Amino acid sequence: MRWRSKKIMAAAAVAVAAGLVLSGCGAGGSSSGGGGTLTIGTGGVFTESNNPFAGTSSASANGWRWLIYEPLVQVNGAVPTEDPEPWLASDYEWSEDFTSVTFTARDGVKWSDGEDFGADDIAFTFGLLKDNAALNSDNVALDTVEDDGDTVTLTFTESQFVKQASILGQFIVPEHIWKDVDDPATYADADPVGTGPFTFDSATSSVAKLTKNPGYWQADDVKVEAIAYQALQGNDAILNGLAAHKLDWASSFALNQKEGFVDKDPDTNLAWNVSSLGIDAFVLNTAKAPFDNVALRSAISKVIDREKLVQLSSGGILSPVLSVTGLPQPVGDAFIDPEFAGQEYAVDVEGAKAELTAAGFSYSGDTLIDPSGNPVSMTLIDPSGWTDYLTALQVIGESVSEIGISTSIETPSQDAWQAALASGEFDGTMRYSNSGPTPYDIYATYMDGSKYQPLGTEVTGNYGRFNSQEGTAALDAYRTAADETERSAALSTLQRVFVEEVPAIAIIAKANTGMFTTVNFTGWPSEDDPYASPGILDRNISKIMVTLTPAS
Predict the structure, then answer these.
(1) In this structure, how many other beta carbons lie within 10 angstroms of the beta carbon of residue 373?
(2) Within this chain, do residues 16 and 129 fall inside the same structural domain, yes or no?
(3) Pick from 155, 132, 133, 153: which is nearest to 142 by CA?
(4) What does pTM read for this prediction?
(5) pLDDT tens sequence across 351-383
(6) 341: alpha, beta or left, given left = phi > 0 and alpha = psi -120 to 50?
(7) How many helices (H) and strands (E) does the chain have?
(8) Which domain holds residue 201?
């Protein structure tokens, strides 16, 4: 079986897939030799919406879609150099140029309603992606889908080198249920049928419950009898719940992770922060004046004290992005173009002012005036309770005041924040990138012109609305490159555009965070046993469920 080239594998040795804010909350419990309830907390409001294709469904936003529906192959986000582990597919094979892949359906797997799982379900799921652009969130370039016995062969219109993890990790839905769904993009899926280790039980606005699937193909290995999700507001509430052993698992970011959790009970409280080829960036709305002026974006980047910001916002858990390419180090070192090797961000207030005045900005006393004669100010937005991002924006506000820019910060709900990004009703915000085994995901997050829309039309990505034909063409070239030489040339262009045009301001090197207690369950992934990524939203969650054992 093939995964990716050895060169890329070595370069991405500590890169991981993206994880988002989640945690465990509620009353767990188990007895020696038996299972119990594992508790998880999130920041959302629950509904009985389990559509795995809809990013806004409760199952997707809070992570339990991966407990009901399973991937074809488990790609270990913690150690991407590992060979992926066949899951619903018992085998798979890529073509040399990554324009086709063949899966073999695992025998003996049943859907939770008792129906047999097979290659027809795999073919049906990818057929849905091919025929419904709204479902194809990863923009997989599907051409044909053909099943033959227990195998399914997918062909693509271009190389899927950068989409390998998405394709291998695609969840599968049952044809016998979804064939009768009129609109799979809006289907509520209130009573989901999956192959996963758990089935959906119920949901109120604050509590969602899942129970063990007795017909699961690895049921003997699942020692957790039930999972309870509880809605919590803010990182502090999550950390307090963990420290009180009311939660079993969290992947929310906590500023005082060590003092507020691990040190409270070092024998039972564990934390694991996995290096990631992803970043948190300060994103300006480049479709609005004066933020459409590259000189202003560059000047703002010059005055931000990244080391101070990261120390204050993460308590030193995370690291600043210092390479001008926006790539985190050391995980991104192998990808940095020689042209930019050794070039790092440094605070330069006088240099920022000189760049602004050369571009037509001026000063009225200490206030920066844009070329149209208006004072420069920014309204920054941060989801309520996201304390790390709030601290980051406060430091940014202090930094830009040095060049005459005034700021204010608003803290809407997470849903309202996301809606503001989609509509373009913001000036600036912190925003995480996607992560993957190559820099493609970072640059695509902030530079993908195919997702650009003018203000007034909602977008599903590239929330800064950066629109560079050269940058978009380089993304396309990297994605479809036939060999490493072509990829390297495209990557050089991407880095030059990022440095020269400042589509986003790279700030923080991301880590995928897991916090666990061993009061109720043991066997969590760790640095010593990195069998899975530790995030609640990750596709590896079913792998974790077959590994945990009750604490004695």
Answers:
(1) 8
(2) yes
(3) 155
(4) 0.75
(5) 999 999 999 999 999 999 999 999 999 999 999
(6) beta
(7) 17, 22
(8) 10-268+518-550
